[in-house]
Write a structure and sequence with these properties.
This protein is mainly α. It has one domain. The protein is built from 14 helices and 2 strands. It has a two-stranded parallel sheet. Helix 2 runs antiparallel to helix 3, helix 4 runs antiparallel to helix 5 and helix 4 crosses helix 6.
């Protein structure tokens, strides 16, 4: 995301109390003053980006991916060991989305070059395009939960149990990604209002390079006599890990208010340290939306200052999704 001015936070660049029709809740403070909770000095302290913190986080995430992926690749004959490793490897691949997300905000590292470079590769691993996503996500922060403006609302939240399970399967996500990458790579970018004309060439070029990487990986695996390598070590693990990511992402805004009140339109979910690690602290999502300029490694400290303001706060993603399922079952 883009950096913000002191108290304003970065809005322009940027589990679940499941009322399917969100109740309109009002915070006692006016929304116009919402982003003045932290003082300028506090925000300046929380806004400190760090290359060291960024590399430590990258090393930890890639370490989980490397160890679990190595076990999956070498122990397939021992399913009791290989299958748990496959799940962890798949989740670590899918949650590279969180790394890309942090980099698009340019808060993963102090260096913008590192943010842009690593963010692009994180997108390749998670089947997102970082160049496209940066513009898409900028609008999500600018118009959070505003119908007709927030592009995330273009993908409707599930209103039935069947739709929820379909969403969790990640099949709609796969189909959407293939369609979008194909459209953008062929230059069909006019229908995306969050893409300014000045960004069209960059986004098209970036997507073409990404698809070339996938093509190169497939060609290399065939040349090395491992024609199924991309399927076994990327597609299959991603398919296993994506439902976990879908459940996490559903918790961020589903059932929250459809308005510009940051106290009620975004949810923070208190979860385990391993999941916070792989999600780059994005479970502190209300904190992130109120002050998008705060880097991932400072979000836990920011949470301690801001937690009393949230009307959407849950203990764990299992709890959030159970509540959503319960609501959907009642809805019929």
């Amino acid at each position: 995301m883009v950096q913000n001015n002191a108290v304003q936070g970065v809005i322009l660049d940027a589990t679940l109390e499941p009322a399917i029709e969100p109740a309109v809740q009002q915070h006692p403070e006016p929304v116009s003053s919402a982003r003045h909770v932290l003082t300028a000095a506090e925000l300046a302290r929380f806004n400190q980006r760090s290359n060291r913190q960024g590399w430590q986080q990258v090393a930890a995430h890639l370490g989980v991916m490397g160890v679990s992926g190595g076990i999956w690749a070498t122990q397939m004959a021992h399913l009791w060991l290989a299958l748990p490793a496959l799940v962890l490897y798949g989740v670590s691949l899918a949650t590279m989305f969180a790394a890309m997300h942090e980099c698009t905000h340019r808060t993963a590292f102090a260096s913008n070059q590192l943010n842009d470079g690593f963010g692009w590769w994180a997108g390749v691993l998670s089947f997102y395009n970082g160049t496209f996503y940066r513009r898409y996500h900028k609008w999500h922060h600018r118009f959070t939960q505003i119908p007709g403006k927030d592009p995330e609302l273009d993908d409707p939240k599930p209103t039935t149990l069947r739709a929820y399970l379909w969403e969790l399967s990640a099949i709609p996500w796969w189909l959407g990604k293939v369609k979008t990458h194909a459209r953008v790579a062929t230059g069909q970018v006019q229908d995306y209002p969050f893409l300014p004309d000045s960004a069209h060439a960059d986004v098209v070029r970036s997507t073409r390079w990404q698809l070339a990487v996938y093509g190169g990986a497939i060609a290399l695996s065939i040349l090395l006599g491992q024609p199924w390598a991309v399927l076994l070590y990327w597609v299959l693990p991603m398919a296993v890990g994506q439902p976990v990511l879908r459940a996490i992402l559903l918790a961020e805004h589903t059932g929250c208010t459809h308005d510009d009140n940051p106290y009620t339109n975004t949810r923070t979910t208190l979860t385990t340290a391993p999941l916070r690690l792989l999600m780059w602290n994005m479970p502190y999502h209300a904190e992130h939306h109120l002050y998008p300029s705060i880097p991932f490694h400072m979000l836990p400290a920011a949470h301690e200052h801001l937690v009393g303001h949230w009307q959407q706060l849950e203990q764990g993603y299992v709890t959030v999704n159970r509540k959503l399922i319960s609501t959907l079952e009642k809805a019929g």
